[in-house]
Amino acid sequence: SYEPPGHMHRYLASMNLIQMRALVRSLSAYCTVDLVERESLGQTEDDVHLILDADTAVLFYTLELLPSGGDALVNLLTRLSWRYAHVLVIFECYPSSWNFRGDKDFSDKPVASSWSPPVAKAVKKLRRDISIAEGIQSKRATTVVDYAFANTVEEAAAYARVYGDTAEANNGTQGLGWGERAWLTHEERDVTVSFS
């Protein structure tokens, strides 16, 4: 059972996440998370969705896409392992349209299970491939990749917030990087430096 937190967190969010209206609303209203929008949070458009702190990132992924997109996800996670110490992959075990329909309540709608045999096999393959990548050192061994399986949009938001709470608790700076984090709201600026 999830209880909404008493204090706010502020995270960097990608444009891809901001377009998921229901997820954004759940993060804001249900999980007390303020999102600071950035056009990109990485090298590609399909990078992480949330950056919680300098070492922690969250990626949302539709579980039904895993059988066909598992290899691309492994490549992304191995690349992210060199940038972050902790990465949470939240698998959406619900129709992806729920993320975009912020004006609808789907709690009473029957939903087919996302756990088809190909999906279950793909989850096992993903875990095995991440272990292999670590063994051949294409994934940084010290990076922890965690997985969560959300059955609703609210559950996906709650997993992200709980991961943020864990990151805050394990932060070695005695909370200096957390708190209000007003510095995150400053606009991005393109800066050109000339050393001539």
Which sheet architecture does the biggest sheet show?
A: 6 strands, mixed
Q: Give start-end ranges of low-pLDDT stretches.
A: none
Contiguous helical run count? 6
Give the amount of beta strand, in percent. 15-25%
Q: Cα distance, first to last residue?
A: 59 Å
Any idea what the radius of gyration is?
A: 17 Å
| DSSP summary, beta strand count | 6
Order of helices and strands: EHHEEEHEHHEH
Mean pLDDT: 85
Question: SS-based structural class?
Answer: alpha/beta
Please state the overall shape, judged from the principal axes of the Cα atoms. globular
Explained architecture:
The protein has six helices and six strands; from the N terminus they run E-H-H-E-E-E-H-E-H-H-E-H. The protein starts with 8 loop residues before the first strand and ends in a 27-residue tail after the last helix. 32% of the residues are buried. It has helices spanning 15-18, 21-30, 66-80, 97-100, 117-135, 153-169, and strands at 9-14, 33-38, 50-53, 56-62, 86-92, 144-150. Helix 3 links the parallel strand 4 (56-62) and strand 5. The chain is of the alpha/beta class. It has a six-stranded mixed β-sheet, with helices on both faces. Helix 2 (21-30) crosses helix 6 (153-169) and helix 3 (66-80) packs parallel to helix 5 (117-135). Helix content is 35%, strand content 19%. The longest helix is centred in the middle third of the chain and has 19 residues, at 117-135. The model has no long low-confidence stretch (mean pLDDT 85).
